[in-house]
């Protein structure tokens, strides 16, 4: 005990040192290598040593551009722009001779993925392709800062070893996968750096302001976007990935300050079953090179623990289903320039050195294993082709009878993954659903990307392991809430032309200019955007709270929007021109209504057509609010629907008025920073007519604070059976719902159900908030079914809790409403199928009451 105390005192003495010595270039670079003096060092360009300051993205770009200019080993190209308009660059580094033939090298390399030609290739004569990606999380900066050293080394190192490496390898360097997040973090830590480094973890340097630098502009985790492809960073990167089809891709990250260094493979039982066993073996073999290199510099590390390779939407796992080997690196983070840890003071230069060291060990591994890696890629696609020919399904078909746009957006994603998509040749039925050339797409399974197709379409509910680092299900047709089917056979009469160019579905005004009214259905994905545009142009609109039909037999459902011609600021011609533009931009069909006398259902002058007010939205941010979930809501409204929500901090809520808003959004999170005055303000605002939309933990917080009348179930009873302590982590982890897909039943007559036409709705869930159905028979628009699991993992106790529980309840408070959702309907921006629930809350929450509009009207008779 005395020895431990003495060690602690010594450690504290070490931590109290005001200065951590700055490393020079010699600290990082291998001692046995000489460098070309004509190639400028990082310090010569940046004005400081690597690790002395956190490089901003513009400084990183400045350095890379200079390397491109001075080295004949490097070419650099821009592959995209971030939301904040920062350039994304990919450097191609190889021998000058290879550069002369780079296009033919690329084309030959891609032939490895074509089983019909790959057998003719001699892998002994082909260079391997290595992709090195740095710092997809902006506040994990050791990766991007290590890329400075990596590019300098590859540009300036001299001798036969580097020449041989460059002749046998094409190296692709993505120095900053997340420029917006990188810049946010670098600005924070550099702003709080003193002349003398402070290592106390309580220092503001290590406490980033919300939303922190991990995410991109819209607060998305880009390391989860490799499959969904919702952001320009991912779209541009994936296009280059498939242009090259690398053999190995490295993904440099950081983890907690008190950790050491991790490299893959992860936990063997948590690999996705579609990943071949040889991938794991190759990853292990590459790991031997990392171990040797880290041993040499005295750095501790671990492997085959903690992390997994299951979700294919991560940067280190996506390559595994594309014939490559993805490698995750996780370095303990200094989260600044130097910070105390259980292993002593962890300096920024030390973290950079480990990332650079494993960059070098990766280069060594790829060069030594070149033929193995090339053969693995060839064999992967050969084996996939063999399996595809024997696959249980010949194709997958998906579409939407009443909303072509959602199907279009799914086809758009699939094509970006180099998967062939076709239109049906003619209409046909599967399971009583009709698929037409206009509204459907077919994805044959017999194609090179067979395994990726399976990964995107499969439903999996049985797993080798019950713990997941990320989500356990992501079935895309369910995410888009599309009609879909697995086709056991594919007839020649069913498969039409391959889709080479996708075009957004067209919209139009049917019937020309009206002098009476127009209507459009709410089925279309972009119907809310159309309505918002009308509001922005001061157009009055009403919504149908019952069905009606026209003289030509056309039926209109709940949620149909009606625009009267009279009483508008625009004259009839101007209104027609505006609606023509709105229809075209949003893929909607808008109908001319020449009379209000409908033969069936409500008439256009009925009180069942309720007037709508333009949403004026505030979104609570900061504090303990889940920035991912709020970012997804912000992205949806701003980027996709052209709405202008006000981002309001919890501090602002506490001290300012909110009466100017009629909708307030609370994402999942902890709202403990809201004061008593703030709680009272929220309560009064709802009572005065506001619509409060709360997701996940926010709904639970409102229930706990008596803002609304929601009730949550108690957790499942703990098992008191005595168990080994060593099993505790796995036992508890198995109760986590990391992310799975469940079936819920939707009330199509409820305002939150407008625009849906199938009462069975797939819902994504990644939490254990189980809400009791409201005692009001009209207040439960979405309820989980008795057998809800569609795809993914959930423990039996949690499944029992989820059965028949409420996914959404609506609670009256004065003249306002609290709409509580247990789940996030905007998950990672690709859960198109439930976006409308969120948007309906915003546009139609004002309409919800305890009875019907007609009952309210009858009360005045």
What would the keywords be for this entry?
single chain; 861 residues; alpha+beta; Aminopeptidase; Alpha-Beta Plaits; 4 domains; nine-stranded mixed beta sheet; 27 helices; 38 strands; disordered N terminus
Structure write-up:
By secondary structure, the chain is α+β, with helices and mostly antiparallel strands. It has 4 domains: 2-244 and 359-385, Aminopeptidase; 392-498, no CATH class; 508-611, Alpha-Beta Plaits (2-Layer Sandwich); 617-719 and 729-852, Rossmann fold. Helices cover 34% and strands 20% of the residues. It is built from 27 helices and 38 strands. Strands 30-28-31-33-38-37-36-34-35 form a 9-stranded mixed beta sheet, sandwiched between helices. Strands 2-3-6-4-7-9-8 form a 7-stranded mixed beta sheet, sandwiched between helices. A 6-stranded mixed beta sheet has the order 19-25-20-24-21-27. A hairpin with a 5-residue loop joins strand 22 (548-549) and strand 23. It is globular. It starts with a helix and ends with a helix. Residues 53-373 form the Peptidase M14 domain. Its EC number is 3.4.17.-. It holds the Pfam family Peptidase_M14. InterPro entries: Class_I_gatase-like (IPR029062), Peptidase_M14 (IPR000834). Residues 1-21 form the signal peptide.
